[in-house]
Q: What sequence folds into this?
């Protein structure tokens, strides 16, 4: 059973490789995509699992209670437990993979229509992660 506590905590500062909307960092020899603290990207962290995602301690945002409400309600609606606060999350990038490759792989193929069915979004992400990491 997956639990947020299984995700490795790395107490080190990541080195920025590329900035912008899709930040890529190096952390302890791993090339990683930074996942901002929002429901969609943390759902990706959950789906990718603790073998492909690490976290680092992060300062609490002044509006953290509001952020937690939105992020955790999104996760719960997708069938995922609320994530712990106070961390920055990072996804392993397979060799030769760009952030846009990741977003293309986990594309929900219209699952973001209104109303959003977050279980369909999660299923689309699971298929994309399996393809991205060649998981049988």
A:
């Amino acid at each position: 059973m997956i639990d947020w506590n299984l995700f490795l905590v790395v107490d080190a500062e990541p080195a920025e490789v590329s900035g912008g909307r899709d930040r890529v960092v190096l952390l302890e020899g791993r090339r990683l995509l930074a996942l901002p603290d929002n429901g969609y990207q943390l759902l990706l962290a959950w789906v990718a699992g603790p073998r492909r995602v690490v976290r680092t301690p992060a300062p609490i945002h002044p509006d953290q209670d509001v952020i937690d409400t939105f992020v955790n309600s999104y996760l719960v609606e997708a069938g995922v437990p609320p994530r712990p606060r106070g961390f920055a999350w990072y996804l392993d990038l397979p060799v030769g993979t760009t952030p846009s490759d990741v977003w293309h792989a986990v594309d929900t193929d219209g699952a973001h229509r209104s109303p959003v069915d977050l279980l369909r979004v999660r299923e689309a992400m699971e298929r994309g992660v399996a393809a991205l990491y060649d998981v049988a």
In short: The two ends are 18 Å apart (CA to CA).
